[in-house]
Every structure is written in C-alpha cells, then in structure tokens.
Amino acid sequence: IEKGSSVSEVSKAIGINPATFWRKCNGVSSFTRKEILDIKDFLQLTVEEVMYIFFADELTETQEKEQLSCN
Fold first, then answer.
1. CA–CA separation, 61 vs 2, rounded Å?
2. Is 40 left (phi over 0), alpha (psi -120 to 50) or beta?
3. Around 44, how many Cα atoms within 13 Å sit in the side-chain half-sphere?
4. Which of the 8 DSSP states describes residue 25?
5. Which single residue of 17, 30, 45, 55 could bond 49 by disulfide (Cβ 3.0 to 4.6 Å)?
6. Could you give the CA distance from residue 41 to residue 13 in angstroms, rounded to a whole number?
7. CA–CA separation, 46 vs 70, rounded Å?
8. How many whole angstroms separate alpha carbon 12 and alpha carbon 64?
9. CA distances to 7, 21, 36 from 18, in Å
10. Neighbours of 12 (CB within 10 A)
11. What is the pLDDT of residues 6-61, one digit of tens each?
12. Of the candidates 10, 5, 61, which has an alpha carbon nearest to the alpha carbon of residue 19?
C-alpha cells in the first residue's frame, strides 16, 4: 500500500478483515462503493487517483468500445 499505510491499517480504517482486504486488492472480490470512499478519505486520494486505482480497467474497456463504435 502506498502513502505509507499498511494493509492492516487500511483494512482497519475501512472496517474489514485484512484477509478480505487482500482478496479485494488482488481481484478475488470487489470493493464496495463505501469501501472505496473510505479508502479515498483514509489515504487522502484525489478523484483522479481513485479512478486510476479502482476503475482503470473499466475505463479502458469502455474507451475501446467507444472507439470501435465510432469507426
């Protein structure tokens, strides 16, 4: 975890078990909207950082679809 916080600290701050946090970080399950907002607040992330961290794959897929439909 960047910004100087450990998995244990972040998971405690958002109210989930460290093992659950690890699974979510590794794509086994997804973060809820509330968890994302809590992480944003705890780590003092910008909106751009949140979009990059949590939604980069979705944004890329959407952009690819939009490019295909425009051609």
1. 26
2. alpha
3. 3
4. H
5. 45
6. 10
7. 31
8. 37
9. 6, 5, 15
10. 15
11. 999 999 999 999 999 999 999 899 999 999 999 999 999 999 999 998 988 765 55
12. 10
Distance (Å, rounded) from C-alpha 38 to C-alpha 19? 17
- Is the pTM for the entire model greater than 0.85? no
Could you tell me if 22 and 7 are in contact, meaning their C-beta atoms sit under 8 angstroms apart? yes
Q: For residue 25, which phi and psi values (nearest 5 degrees)?
A: -65, -30
| Residue 20: per-residue pLDDT | 97
Which stretches within the chain are classed as H helix? 7-14, 18-25, 33-43, 47-70
Token pair of 31, please?
Answer: 């973060």
Q: What is the pLDDT of residue 12?
A: 96
